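re: ur question from yesterday

yeah so i grabbed the chain u mentioned. its 244 aa long if i counted rite. heres the sequnce exactly as i have it in my notes:
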Amino acid sequence: MKKTIEVCERGFKELNEEIKQLLENSKEVVLNGVFGQRYIGDAMPAGKTIVVHGTPGNDMGAYMDGGHIEVFGNGQDAVGNTMNGGRIIIHGSVGDALGYAMRDGEIYVEGNVGYRCGIHMKEFEQARPVIVIGGSAGSFLGEYMAGGIVILLGRGMQQEIVGSYVATGIHGGAIYVRGEVPAQCMTKAVVSEACTDEDMKRISTYVRNYCKFFTADFDEIMQVPFTKLRAISSRPFKSMYTNN
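ran it thru and got these structure tokens back, copy pasting raw so excuse formatting
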């Protein structure tokens, strides 16, 4: 059974309490008229869905543990903060720190993202977080990344699709950029290389999902070669703490 809430000017505490109460006996809650309310869907478990119409506030989907959020609008900062699992789909763009310290699950953004997307992402055994971005990303993409995958498509962009200091301090995981990444955008600790067949198989899976969610052309997207960015070392700061 699906429940609907007309959000209007409700405070975030009242709203989130009502959402949690409704999800106890319902699998899906639809929110209309969202305008900056924070913490929507935090810690939501598997089997539960929130559909958002409007612009949710910071920390949407933080610590989410398997739930599903779909946003018809833009998102603000720290979407999917320390997310443990599940899926977030955003039909728009988002602000800074998307997927901060994300541990598992998938986030798909139709448009652009701000600064420090995917920082401190990590993976363990079968848990591997994934972020797919349709447009551009600001500076410090994948900063201190320890695991997981970021795919940057740059659709509709005429200029550079990634900002400065991409993958600063990266020591795990991979960033896949559709097209080339200018050398001045990267630090010396990052390796830029062509994708392998295994990389392309992985990319294709998530790009197909993106195309399904946002009605994009898979063949058109895949016509442009992807560049893989990875860490040159699993211990990028070793020289700062030892003479060996």
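noticed a couple things. The CA atoms of residues 100 and 166 lie 15 Å apart. also The chain has a mean pLDDT of 93.
anyway ttyl
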